[in-house]
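QA checklist item 7 of 12: single-chain prediction sanity check.
[x] sequence parsed
[x] length recorded as 114
[x] structure emitted
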Amino acid sequence: MRLLGGILAGVVLGLVVGVAAVAVHPWWWGLLLAVAASSAALLASPRGAWRISYAATWAIVIALAATPRPTGGYAVAGDVAGYLMIFWAVLMVVVATATVSRATSTADRGLTGE
């Protein structure tokens, strides 16, 4: 139950921060705020399922905003700010998966001197 709660919290946080980042990224100060807030939320979230679900949801929001709409518009355009948002989404997923804590067995603890 704790795992499911962490995943759900990460998804909700990713949706909120991702939508806010898409909304303010066209302005230079908004882009800085979006990158800073997204990174701070990633680093402040606990390692594991919460962090991965946050980063994945944030990246999905950015990816959906970068796809063309039926009416012909984009929420994340193909400019420098838009490409930075897409790059940051990929980077956040990489950081989230790279920082997952590994459970060590008692045999591994004996080898590392713990």
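[x] summary fact logged: The first helix runs from residue 2 to 24.
[ ] second reviewer sign-off
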